[in-house]
Amino acid sequence: MSTEKxxxxxxxxxxxxxGWLVLYNQASASLWSIVxxxxxxxxxxxxxxxxxxxxxxxxxxxxxxxLVEVYNSAVGIVRSPVLTTVSQVASRLLVVYGxxxxxxxxxxxxxxxxxTLSLSWSITEIIRYLYYAQNISSNGQPxxxxxxxxxxxxxxxxxxxxxxxxxxxxxxxxxxxxVVGAWYKWFLIVIIGVYAPGFYTxxxxxxxxxxxxxxxxxxxxxxxxxx
Length: 227
Hints:
The protein has one domain (16-219). It is 81% helix and 0% strand.
């Protein structure tokens, strides 16, 4: 194959990958909008525990779709480290399957922590996926408002999300021992211990990304004059 044909093939592959990522991110943002809508309006209309009973399955399905991100990372469609992606997705899957589905009668599921969890997850993901989609489709120049939201709201949303996840697990320890066994209770306790270093790694990573993103915004607003 000639160099020109190889280049054309590589460009075509890149365009397909970018098209797939834009589609995936836009679809994911739309799906998480459903979670946000359900959480806000149903918490007002029906409250707990009916909110959990009505929404936990759709939230579980939508969160499960995040496994696609592991695939994207594993095959090189995105540059995210596989292990980091797996750990982030796994922590949420633990909650939606290990708590929502395995322990449906856990007091955590009727607690306000379920509401703060759903709000934190959905708002975070809507902004994140929209940012990614536009970043790709605009050749690295997403809307300023998305960049600002992406790299500022995490100061609130990440701690509230992690605190809600830990709260859900803590509130489920008794039910875990009763329904599954003592080993499951201790497994969940170990998982709680893993949250601290995991959160530190993720949060400091976001701080570094924020510094780069806001610096780029500043340079775009005030371009250097040519000598």
